Amino acid sequence: MMGMNIKGSVEKVNGKEMSYSNFVENYLSKNKPVVISGLMKDWKACKDWVHHDDGTPNLQFISSNFGNSNVQVADCGSREFTDQKRLDMSVAEFIDQWIKLSSEELSDHSTNECKDKALLYLKDWHFVKEFPEYTAYTTPLLFRDDWLNMYLDHYHMHEDPDTYKKRDDVSCSDYRFVYMGAKGTWTPFHADVFRSYSWSANVCGKKRWYFLSPEQRHLVFDRNMKNSVYDIFEEVNETIFPNFKKTTWLECTQDQNEIIFVPSGWYHQVYNLEDTISINHNWFNAYNVSWVWDLLLRDYKEASEYIEDIKDICDDFEGLCQRNLAVNTGMNFYDFFNFMVRFSFANIVQLCHLARSSVFDEWCSSSKAQHLIFNLDSTKDITTKMKNTCLSKNHNISLDFRSVLEEPAFLELCFQVDKTYAFIHDQCTLIDDKEKNLMGDLVDMVFCKLISTVVCNPEDLVILIDDILQSLRILPQKKGQNA
Ligand SMILES: O=C(O)CCC(=O)C(=O)O
């Protein structure tokens, strides 16, 4: 860490003593990193994947139970563009190589011969998607308000199956991962996908983290703001990165059974100080969804500038920019808008149920109702920012409330949204009977006129949310006053 200015350590707190609102107030809404203990007590992964005598990974257990899974493994010694080179192999092959390398390391200790061997790091293993019935862990309450994974459990991110099928099948199925690597494996300097939040839990081992706040982002880029530093411990070239010397850092060592919260847009570099297995999720919600849109807009501008010179000869320049955006960033404007529309509809359905099922006029002051209203308010803010883009000009977008309500995936999304906010706010779920038809439920409601709504552009969504919030907030009050 020669020459780097470490200004402090990431705070550590006991998760058993922290309420949800405390976490929101102090970390989520402030976008501040924290290490939390006490949230992994009953995880099956912590029992099955670790040797309890010495805390090392139980590689035999993982290989014999999940060895056939095909994964991507990073070669920590080889750089490929902005990341490490990736290799495809089975989990069993990866573990065989790990065991072989560590036994050679022991026998070659005096000769240093193992220095040239590749240090392999299994990353982004979609473990929950592949082994849902095993239930390796349960997501702690603090991280449950996860719009991204809730949506991806029922919908694909990309609407166009021909263009994106291959990518969707594996890499975009969800953002819940297992990471496994020997001591010395590491992750280069980066900020997370979509500028989402992430949490990362150490099932065994120790990690060292180095953090740079988003306010200092400009200091780690080259003069054109195109490329950022890859490895903060390499000699950073001052001519290319003239401002790097001005950076200030937070550091921390994350122990076994601790979970680190990585806020939006914070750059970080990570080292496994011991043989380590971790579980991590990327997610976003009302507090950081603006980061996602800001990134999409910035990446879109970059994508269109990059191919500016073919604009005049290109039949569908806009379409090409959006395809490139989806490939490079992981989603494009249309993917994001479709997501926002469906997620808003699901929140609206929940609010309608809450309003109808409550006998009290103050139904909308319950923490669950307030959360749903907050979600819709933030969705409205983001959608307002989308108004002056191609989304307003494309006449092929059409999401009507009635058809979406009839999608089986939407029904499932509604159940999950209901369960999630009931769990967070310790309230009962509203929709008990899976066979119940949501349409039928809504028919007798004053605001069912909105069922005929068709959303064709961001403006329509803004109007819909405004309309719904106004009706829902005002109607119960009026009812009370009339009674
Ligand atoms: O554990 C690692 O090696 C990297 C994890 C990471 O970058 C993250 O969770 O955002």
Automatic annotation (TrEMBL):
It comes from Artemisia annua (Sweet wormwood). PROSITE patterns: JMJC. Gene3D superfamilies: Cupin (2.60.120.650). GO terms for cellular component: cytoplasm; nucleus. This is JmjC domain-containing protein. GO terms for biological process: positive regulation of translational termination. Pfam families: Cupin_8. PANTHER family: 2-OXOGLUTARATE AND IRON-DEPENDENT OXYGENASE JMJD4, ARGININE DEMETHYLASE AND LYSYL-HYDROXYLASE JMJD. One of its GO terms (molecular function) is sequence-specific DNA binding. Belongs to the JARID1 histone demethylase family. Residues 128-300 form the JmjC domain.
